[in-house]
C-alpha cells in the first residue's frame, strides 16, 4: 500500500510510525553524544589534576591530544551508527509498519473498536488465562509430588547406608579371631553340659522305682526322683566358670 494510504490507516488508529522512529533515532543520538561528552570531561579532569605549574605546556599538549582522539572516535562511531540506524529505519517502514494490500479501513471509530475486539475477544483471552492457570497449578502439584518422592528416596538411601554399615560392622566383628574362639568355647561348654545332663538323666531313670516293704504286703512304690547331687551342681558351675 502506498505511503499516503498507509498514513491514512495509521492516522485512523492514532499511530504515527515516522514520529516514533524519529524519537528513537533522537534518543540514540542523545545517548551517544552524552557518552562522548562524559569522556571529554573525564579526560580534561584527569590531565589537569595530574600536572604541576611547571608542566603547563605539557599538560596543554596532552589535553589537546586527548580531545582530538575522543573527537575522532566520536566521528567514526557516529558514521557507523548513522548507517546502521538508517537501515533499521528503512526496515521498520517497509516491514513493521507496512499495511497489507486490500486492507479496508472501517467507516467509524466505533467500527475500529469493534474490529479490535473481534481480533482479540475477551472470552478467548479469559479462556487462555484460565488454561494457563490450570497448567501452572498442575505443574505445581507435580513439583510437590516429585519433592515428596525425592525426600522418601533420600530417607530410604540413608536407611540403606546405615543398614549396610551395621552389617559390615557385625561382619567385621565376626571375622575377628576372638569371636571364633568364643564360639568354639561355647560349643565345648554346651557339649560338656549336654553330657552331664545325660548322665544325670540316666541316674534318675535307674532310680525311678525302688522296692518298699510293709507289714501288710509287698508292693512297688513309684519313686518320684531325687534332687540333683551337690557334686553334680558344683561340677556344672565349675564348667560354666571356666568358660566365663
TrEMBL record:
Major place of residence: nucleus
One family name in Pfam for this protein: Mis12
GO CC aspect terms: MIS12/MIND type complex; nucleus
Keyword check for Ribonucleoprotein: no
Subcellular location: Chromosome, Centromere, Kinetochore
Record keywords, A-Z: Cell cycle, Cell division, Centromere, Chromosome, Coiled coil, Kinetochore, Mitosis
InterPro entries the UniProt entry points to: Centromere_Mis12 (IPR008685)
BP terms from Gene Ontology: cell division; kinetochore assembly; mitotic sister chromatid segregation
Keyword Zinc attached: no
PANTHER family found in the cross-reference section: PROTEIN MIS12 HOMOLOG
Family: Belongs to the mis12 family.
Protein name, UniProt field: Uncharacterized protein
Organism: Zingiber officinale (Ginger)
